[in-house]
């Protein structure tokens, strides 16, 4: 029996239990009580992440029919398909927090939901497939490896599998660039141009600088986020600064250097006004990306209807079998 006076005490006990799990670095599962703000933060983050995976299929899907060989086409198709799978795991993880996938999709299509601003840049040449794999998937890995330990169970577990596939994506991108960089002068130029265009946007994938990222602190206190935006960005710079040497290419940044005192990699200041513009929907491809997603959603209506009809039929069959 619950009385009015007991309710606040229960809530405190639940909050204490939650705080204990977080302090022990344990996992919060869907059945556990959680503060509303924790639930909302995660629902927003995981759904945005899911949207990024499926919108992120577009710049590369655009090149499947123009891949330079059958082998490249098969690899690119597998990669784009992986991204659809990542979306699926993440929508499923987000659904455990109480929002339906239909609702999340409706918000995306209505332009109410955000996704990573990187996918609003165009993929102009075949070398962009290399730069996206190396830099964009590379930044995604740097961001996501610590998320494998996120306090919310379904999110952390989804990230483990995603990260394994992302490392294949990064290597395939690197290998495309390596081949181009060792090809003709024109191919090398094409690779360098792609790196030049994707470098700064990929650094911005880690989010705004720490002093302009008000929610980061709370996310870190909840063990969702393990490292700050600037920390992750610095690590990523340290990683690619070495890898670019193997490619025989350069990064378009004169300021890159390791600061012994801070233990951080430093880089050119990034254009955060551009970042905000793209995030606000005014990037080069925002309208096109959403339009394409709407079309794909409409085109897929019959598949959803057929799947629902099949599920209903199976359920009916089971009920009849149970009754017999
Ligand atoms: Fe992905
Ligand atoms: Fe990927």
Automatic annotation (TrEMBL):
Pfam entry (one): PaaA_PaaC
Keywords, sorted A to Z: Oxidoreductase
EC number, UniProt record: 1.14.13.149
Molecular function terms, GO-annotated: phenylacetyl-CoA 1,2-epoxidase activity
Keyword Oxidoreductase: yes
Gene3D superfamilies named among the record's database cross-references: 1.20.1260.10
Signal peptide, first to last residue: none
A cellular component annotation (GO) from this entry: cytosol
NCBIfam families with a match to the protein in the record: PA_CoA_Oxy1 (TIGR02156)
Protein's name in the database: Ring-1,2-phenylacetyl-CoA epoxidase subunit PaaA
Species the sequence originates in: Arthrobacter pigmenti
